[in-house]
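User: Can you model how iron/sulfur cluster sits in this protein?
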Amino acid sequence: MEKVLEIKNLHVSFDTYGGTVKAVRGVGFDLHKGETIAIVGESGCGKSVTSQSIMRLIPKATGRIADGSILFKGNDLTKLKESEMRKIRGSEISMIFQDPMTALNPTITVGEQITEGIMQHTKATKQQAKQKAVEMLELVGISSPKERLKQYPHQFSGGMRQRIVIAMSLVCEPEVIIADEPTTALDVTIQAQILELFRDIQRKTNVSIILITHDLGVVAQVTDRVVVMYAGKVVEAGTRREIFYNPQHPYTKGLLNSVPRLDLQGGDLIPIPGSPPDLFSPPTGCAFAPRCPYAMEVCDRVHPNDTIISEGHHTSCWLQDERAKKLVSTLA
Ligand code: SF4
Ligand code: MG
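Assistant: Here's the modeled complex, given as structure tokens:
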């Protein structure tokens, strides 16, 4: 499958009064044409920062991409000028946020907002843009689009507003959509409808989607592959099947135990005790060690390598690393 995005060894840091926070520490993954990947992890794991880096939306005053590359169609996005990046943002890679109201202007009709977006990024005339706006609303399942375009955001329900935001993200036919917790603010039924909408749009447009979420229920519904992040690093990645049915990293297992599963009846939900390390001075060893029921001495001292479990499935955990036995004997 054709690679659309290739992220390698990404490091992102923020300067704060307390010191430098290393929010993303060597993250890498690929995104292929027409696939959906989910980046999952607890808040503060670096999943949103990773997606903001792709859009180059890290606030300049405090944050920076300290190392690594983000290849998109042969260009390293980390090296582009802001003016070049502006052409990509919204038209080739677009982003959807959790709260649709942040993306919509409450004082302007939905129709004007969509047509404005179309005219900003394409050479369409006002009439063509209006026609396109109608098509887009139809694509995201809003009925009587012509009438609804005349309405203001507050005249739509939360789920409908998110559909409008998704329509806006699609107007320029982007290659990639990054959706950061797109359904978190919605109730479960609407959430399922929006996720189904993503699937439907993908079938029709072959767009690639990065879904950022802390909710494995969402992941189970729509993704092809899963990237699990912890303390600024990828700790496991694999197909949805591998992650759900053959998880290897204790953190992934912990996440799976802490969410309700429709396919697994019975059994109590077990939250993962403890909290992630602070990233002012990230641990030298495995960052999950203080919370890990399997932690060994080596885990605290040396960071585990990435180990390949099967094609496309890898994890960094000493339990899977053959060097562990040797190191344990030298540490003893
Ligand atoms: Fe647990 Fe050690 Fe694996 Fe980290 S490396 S997840 S501490 S077993
Ligand atoms: Mg976030």
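A couple of observations from the model: The pocket of iron/sulfur cluster (ligand 1) is lined by residues 249-250, 286, 288-289, 292, 294-296, 299, 304, 317-319 (CB under 6 Å). The chain has a mean pLDDT of 91.
User: Helpful, thanks.
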